[in-house]
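Our collaborator T.R. sent over the components below with a one-line note: 'Predict the complex.' Nothing else. No constraints on interfaces, no templates requested, no preferences about which chain binds where. So this is a plain run: every listed entity goes in together, and whatever single assembly comes back becomes the starting point for the next discussion.
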Amino acid sequence: MTQLILYNTFNGLIIGTFYVLMALGLSLILNLSGVINFAHGGFLAVGGYLAYTLSPYIGFWAALVVAPALTACIGIAIERTLIRRLYGRDPLYSLLLTFGLAFIFEDMTRAIWGAQGLPFTPPSFLTQPISLDYFFITYYRLFMMAVVGVVVLGLFLFLRHTRLGVRIRAGTLDLETVSALGVNVRALRTMNFAVGIFLAGLAGVLAGGNLSLEPTMGANVLMPSFVAIIVGGVGSLPGTLFGGLLIGVASGLTTVWFPSASEAVIYVIMAVVLLVRPRGLMGEEGVMS
Amino acid sequence: MKLRPDLAAIWLVLLTAPFWLPLVHGYEALGTRVLVLGLAAMSLNFLLGFTGVLSFGHAAYFGLGAYGAGLTLKLLAPSTPLAIALGMLLGIAAGAMLGALIARRRGVYFAMVTIAFGQVFYFIAFRWNALTGGDDGLRGFSRQPIDFGFFKLDILNDLTAFYYFVLVCFAGALAIMAFLLRSPFGRTLLAIRENERRARFLGIPVEQHIWLSFVISCAFMSMAGTLYALLNNFADPKGLHYTQSGDFVIMAVLGGMRSFWGPLLGAAVFVVLQDYLSSVTTNWQSLIGLMFVVVVLFFPRGLLGFLLRKSQA
Amino acid sequence: MSLLEVRNVSKSFGSLVAVRDVSLAVEPGELRAVIGPNGAGKTTFFNLISGLFAPSAGAIVFDGRDITKLVPHRRVALGMARTFQITEIFPELSIAENVRIGVEVASGFRLRPWLRRVENNAIKERMTEILTLTNLSGKANRIVGELSHGDQRAAEISMALTLKPRILLLDEPTAGMGDQETYEVTSLIRRLHREQGFTIVLIEHDMRVVFNLADRIMVLDQGAVLAQGTPPEIAANETVQAAYLGKAA
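Returned assembly:
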């Protein structure tokens, strides 16, 4: 039994870190630009597939950095040509735009790389389990969690201590003042979007190494990422971090006793949070209401 | 809103559809499908275009109507009217509860929460295999002929009869929605759409009116769902998924959110386009996605909005 | 008894004190102007009176009734009507429709799915009454969003009037207007005050308007009351002059 609980909690933690990675990117984009990026899952998939295509040439480690960076470039292109036009308008339109983009991403990845699952193998020393008893704890999985941990830490440091990061945070709170202070708001939004997409692409590379690559891989993580944001509190990045881990672990634990309810439980948590503390566990009063 | 001749023309087209559809390479069930999805899009638009509230999880009520109707026919009684009534009841109950929970949120956050809640129902339908048939959907039921006493309407076997049955339901739903929109209550919804703050400062309890609009739109959305299940003799969990919600929203926007009949036009174009594209290319999904992008960037007022503007110029 | 009493009201946003211990008593039929340099807290003060948010301290009494905790639409129901610095109207509807909605809500019809002919006629009469008063009858079918600033403001005031208000709160009604439009709006307000007997509280920057219309004036500076009195008294008040000259207007 303990073995089972451990196994599922660990799995839940892994899934939780994916939710966190995705939700943080979504959150960044939502907070600064008010856009719900439905295409985030598509960017995840693109990141994974690019890594798959590039790694025979540049190796796994380089692909780990290059693929997300390339995905971020695609993100920048899309933000500048399409999304940017809709910032002043009713949020309905940017929702529909990213929604349509999600379709295009899914279809194009299927067209380019095929509908079959593609294996993306990380270096073999990583795929070893750390021990025979805990066969499910592979070095790769620990590596994934470590990467996410480092990246999240890096993100928080970035937002605190770099000029761009501080501007993003300030812009989230009061874009008008930031603009009045002379900051180029358009460029700020683009860079912020790029950071968010980089995180999605990275999630894709990591996910590809964990399971196989397929065109719909992003869609499965998208909804829980939304829930992570709602549960953690819109507007709060630490909240998003906490929310992602919470629902991941909760989902994992539920699998032990009620396997078929493992997805439903994250929505139950969301419903409870909305009833009891509508602004989210760590959300601020009045944000987005 | 519309001049009489326009209305007459629309109804003429709808009433004679079974006759002219085959002439344009169409088929009866296509017409019925357009009516049903058009009703769904128009119900959503009651909330979106006329009250100004964006719900992106509205397909949930469509799906609840479908499953409600299917389960009624499968487990309770072979009665089509009962199936429709219970399907609607299910949708209305869910809408009333969820609407109350989220009426205080607005804008982007509201949309997110509606999406997430919609997904709850998707998962229930997907997982509760025993009841709902899971991923394969709910089968084992079919629409039952309706016995009016002096004659029987065989909507099961006679597709034309079913088309007219749906048309009658459609007309009834539309009549109520149009009636409401022209009433003092309907005008308060327009007020909320136009300027929520001013509506509040005229003494309108905005959250209460939004909730009412939400429930009304859920009622007709779930009615559309019941009719869809009857059309296909099948209820699909995908009908509850947020992608279906997105489809309904684009139908409303494509046709024209600000007009009463716009969403029906949008539904017709969307259905025909999707049917056509999926038969000529495997990449139809990209093209549909592209359509979303094009409409949003270049035709935000939709086809009717675009045409109206041209006629005014 | 005063119609509106604001008793020692304060409002802080975190560490920022926007309104500091302000008291005001408005008598029925009076026109009170609230003036002060930019950032003095005038609009925040109005927001407190109309219920957009609650004060951090103090009470608001309207017609003998403590309304400090009431939500906006309930204050509206009690007879408090308000216009905003940036005109809040229904831009894509006509003037007639804008006013009609107000009349219907004020008549208690907001949830009605239909109207009897008698009721419909009563509504139309009331609409005509208001539009005649504000000189907008000729433009009743024009779309509000397409009209001039001055007409939009008159439309907004018309909507405020549909509530049969006991008191009108007007926030910078002549903001952004040229001389002609300022004149029109000022005349309208004077008519409402002198001929119709409305009680009005007015935030204004344009001193000509203030001295033209006000019975009494309250001067706010940095959230606190600097002076209160009749127009001649305020004009002669040196602290007031210093506050205006000392700050960039």
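Summary for T.R.: Chain C has a mean pLDDT of 90.
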